[in-house]
Amino acid sequence: MERHSKFQIPDSKFLECIILIGLPGAGKTTFYRRYFAATHLHISKDLWPHASRRDARQLRAIDDALGAGRPVVVDNTNPTAADRAPVIAAAHARGAQAIGYFFDVTSRVAIARNEERSGRARVPKVAIFAVAKRLEQPGRAEGFDQLFCVHIAADRSFRVVEASDG
Fold it and tell me: Are 102 and 147 in contact (CB under 8 A)?
């Protein structure tokens, strides 16, 4: 199934926990704003930069929203299967589908996109390289109900394809 930048997120009969996965600067938040902001609660540890126990706070926010019947987007780098596992478990515990979007972007592209940012939005290059070292391509075996791969075209449009395990 291939979807292009003008794709419509299908209306789902299921409660959703969208998990964005990728390098800083890969376009995750832009993707959220473009396709999910009107329908899904935005949950990101970036919104709590100085909070202690951000992982626990994030899981509480996910549980509270899903418990109230609100779909969520978890907008963090989520680089490893171990990082994603508690989010997937929280989604399933509330009967929500865990849907992953993997942003297949090189470090070079992420750095170039990051250079266009200003203020707090810009992250140090070392942060991009640190996440790149840890980044594991997600697979359905982790517990995702659906998994997509997002590519960014030269014109900045998103091309979304259903991921195949392999």
Answer: yes
For residue 117, what pLDDT is reported? Answer: 77
Name the token pair of 121: 């939005």
Query: Stretch 102-129: mean pLDDT, rounded?
Result: 84
Nearest to 99 by CA among 158, 5, 35: 35
From residue 123, give the alpha-carbon distance in Å to each of 8, 28, 46, 65, 164.
Answer: 30, 14, 11, 28, 31
pTM attached to this predicted model: 0.86
Q: Give the containing element (helix H, strand E) for 38.
A: none
Closest Cα to residue 35, out of 12, 13, 55? 12
- Nearest of 146, 98, 117 to residue 26 by alpha carbon: 117
Q: Residue 164: what residue type?
A: S
pLDDT tier, 7 (very low <50, low <70, confident <90, very high otherwise): very low
Among the listed residues 152, 162, 165, the one whose alpha carbon sits nearest the alpha carbon of residue 1: 162
- Residue 150 CB burial class (10 angstroms; 0-12, 13-18, ≥19): buried
Residue 36 C-beta-side C-alpha neighbours within 13 Å: 23
The kind and range of the H/E element at 134 are helix 125-134
Return the SS3 of 147: strand
